[in-house]
Design a protein that fits this description.
This protein is α/β, with parallel strands linked by helices. Helices cover about 35% and strands about 15% of the residues. The chain has a 6-stranded parallel beta sheet, with helices on both faces. It has a two-stranded parallel ribbon with strand order 1-2. Helix 5 links the parallel strand 6 and strand 7. Helix 2 packs parallel to helix 3, helix 2 crosses helix 6 and helix 5 crosses helix 7. The longest helix has 17 residues. The radius of gyration is 19 Å and the shape is globular.
Length: about 240
């Protein structure tokens, strides 16, 4: 509570517009101009649009559609819905699972029950995500709670079309356009909606349009841009 007590020279920086609004709602005394939104960024890098170096996790990776899920909390990041959606898709779809969400017995039982155990690869914690992003085709991020969603921006910078929960669940979605540079899920728990979105995004023309759009979005969200905004804030503070 004390961190949000109003002071005339105190500023708060939120990583997303929804979080900015939440902070303002929490403390009505905060002036509009004292709660700022400065989103994270990515470092520029060479994109890998040809996807010629697919993950060795799949012997037939060149002919598979590789979906990617990244997270440390399987419940909060909604891995269950992703697995159920994968079971609805044909066998050409594979899934890479990255993070601390280890395949415990309940998850392994679910994979066997759904008949998708041979289509899911658990990579664990990956220190260098570049190879993973290069190996994947689509990012699935139907998260139930994410103040921003850094993995979404990172995946976009590698040309991966993204499916992401709406802004009330995932902050970065407030800056995305449904059907233009993302597929935004109104209900991240809707398995059928997620399945249909994957199928739609797999259409070559739709995929190509999204791929161009996500790269353009990422290019406008660099760490250098965030640094300029922080510099302007620090200059304002120094002047006071």
């Amino acid at each position: 509570f004390f961190r949000f007590q109003w002071q005339p020279k105190r500023f708060w920086v939120a990583v997303s517009k929804p979080l900015q609004q939440q902070l303002q709602n929490m403390q009505a005394a905060l002036a509009q101009r004292q709660v700022l939104n400065i989103a994270p960024g990515i470092y520029p890098h060479a994109s890998h649009l040809n996807k010629t170096d697919k993950s060795p996790q799949f012997a037939d990776a060149e002919t598979s559609k590789v979906l990617l899920w990244v997270g440390n909390d399987a419940v909060k990041k909604n891995l269950d819905t992703v697995l159920s959606a994968l079971a609805n898709l044909d066998a050409s779809y594979r899934l890479l699972v990255v993070g601390k969400a280890h395949p415990t017995k309940p998850w392994q039982d679910k994979l066997l029950r759904l008949g998708i155990a041979d289509r899911v690869s658990y990579l664990g914690v990956v220190s260098n995500m570049e190879q993973v992003y290069v190996s994947a085709d689509i990012l699935l991020h139907p998260t139930l709670e994410d103040t921003f969603g850094m993995v979404v921006l990172e995946a976009m910078s590698y040309g991966l079309p993204v499916l992401v929960s709406q802004a009330s669940y995932c902050g970065v979605a407030a800056d995305l356009q449904h059907g233009v540079n993302a597929i935004i899920l109104s209900d991240p728990l809707d398995i059928n909606a997620l399945t249909a979105a994957v199928v739609n995004l797999s259409e070559p023309s739709v995929y190509a349009q999204h791929q161009r759009a996500v790269l353009a979005f990422a290019e406008q969200h660099l760490w250098a841009d965030a640094a300029k905004q922080y510099d302007a804030l620090f200059q304002q503070l120094a002047a006071q």
